[in-house]
């Protein structure tokens, strides 16, 4: 290995990485609707070619390692594939809403990040007989394979992407609800000693108090709530429970859309309404958006009405006269661990 070869390879690496990075920035832009929409299946297929090319890079280090010319050519081929992969991914974003665009961006970024790692490690390993370098190359190739395989799991439509995101929200809300149900009030009443009990010396009493103090942090979450706080907590539990019911109703509506052949070609109104369902905070708005996508909203309306009812009860429990006051009170309500 000559010093000139190493320097030239480093310069080529910087050039390739900068070019790919510039192309990747295009992925943050919304593609013009006048272009033909690309297929995500084509992106997945190109991902398979990327993995094969990454495998080729890894095979260069079998035996004594590659010469400068072979490494240069392989790096150029891999970089060209990455360029095509990015442009094809950008074309697949035509008609994609916020949620689907984010899914595509995340999946593509994983492929680019591990590919950068592979290219950098390849140049760093050139001319280096360190065993650690030779072992690192196959490991990075494995991460490229994982990232390319993950492309198959990336949602191909807006409805699927939103449905998955809504399911993740449901799981989070369910976890919150489970934790809230573990809240317990303070136990104020202390049982009086019976006549059969023998009074303990003061030092024993101190030991007992210390033992109880040590275990207090290991008890159930929020076991020191006052009766008034517990009432508010119970009202909040009802709100979270009804929120979960509302989200489940939305998911059922989305599932119905996925099974409906007529929604294969997603309309802008459908996508827009589904996107709003992910971020809207007031259930009155939720009901309007469900009606727009023309789904079976009976179960959803029932769930959202239940949510509104619980919110009103929570307002009364907190002594609030408006939604703004409710938000303020909830922010001020702190439950210690």
UniProtKB/TrEMBL annotation:
Main location: cytoplasm
Pfam families: GCIP_C, GCIP_N
Cyclin-D1-binding protein 1-like N-terminal domain segment(s): 42-185
Subcellular localization: Cytoplasm; Nucleus
Example of a GO cellular component annotation carried by this entry: nucleus
Annotated signal sequence range: none
Domain Cyclin-D1-binding protein 1-like C-terminal as annotated: residue spans: 208-288
Entry-linked InterPro entries: GCIP-like, GCIP-like_N, GCIP_C
Region annotated Disordered, chain positions: 184-225
Keyword Membrane: no
Coiled-coil ranges per UniProt: none
Biased composition (Basic and acidic residues): 199-214
Gene3D superfamilies xrefs: I/LWEQ domain, Talin, central domain
Record keywords, A-Z: Cell cycle, Cytoplasm, Nucleus
Polar residues compositional bias, start-end: 188-198
Keyword Cell cycle applies: yes
Family note: Belongs to the CCNDBP1 family.
Protein name as annotated: Cyclin-D1-binding protein 1
Organism from which the protein derives: Lactuca saligna
């Amino acid at each position: 290995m000559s010093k000139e070869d190493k320097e030239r390879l480093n310069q080529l690496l910087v050039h390739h990485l900068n070019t790919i990075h510039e192309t990747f920035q295009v992925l943050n832009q919304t593609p013009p609707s006048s272009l033909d929409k690309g297929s995500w299946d084509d992106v997945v297929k190109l991902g398979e070619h990327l993995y094969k090319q990454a495998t080729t890079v890894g095979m260069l280090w079998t035996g004594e390692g590659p010469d400068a010319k072979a490494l240069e050519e392989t790096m150029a081929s891999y970089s060209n594939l990455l360029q095509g992969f990015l442009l094809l991914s950008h074309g697949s974003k035509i008609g994609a809403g916020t949620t689907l665009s984010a899914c595509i961006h995340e999946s593509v970024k994983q492929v680019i990040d591990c590919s950068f790692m592979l290219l950098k490690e390849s140049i760093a390993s050139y001319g280096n007989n360190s065993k650690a370098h030779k072992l690192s190359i196959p490991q990075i190739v494995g991460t490229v394979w994982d990232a390319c395989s993950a492309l198959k799991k990336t949602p191909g439509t807006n409805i699927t992407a939103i449905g998955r995101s809504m399911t993740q929200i449901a799981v989070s809300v369910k976890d919150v609800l489970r934790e809230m149900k573990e809240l317990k009030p303070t136990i104020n009443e202390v049982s009086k000693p019976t006549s059969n009990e023998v009074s303990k010396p003061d030092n024993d009493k101190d030991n007992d108090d210390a033992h109880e103090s040590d275990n207090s942090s290991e008890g159930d979450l929020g076991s020191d709530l006052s009766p008034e706080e517990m009432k508010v907590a119970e009202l909040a539990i009802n709100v979270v429970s009804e929120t979960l019911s509302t989200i489940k109703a939305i998911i059922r509506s989305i599932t119905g859309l996925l099974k409906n052949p007529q929604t294969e070609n997603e309309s802008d109104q459908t996508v827009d309404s589904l996107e709003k369902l992910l971020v809207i905070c007031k259930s009155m708005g939720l009901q309007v958006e469900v009606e727009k996508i023309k789904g079976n909203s009976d179960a959803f309306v029932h769930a959202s009405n239940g949510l509104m009812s619980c919110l009103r009860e929570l307002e009364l429990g907190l002594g609030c006269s408006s939604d703004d006051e409710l938000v303020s009170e909830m922010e001020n309500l702190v439950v210690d661990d």
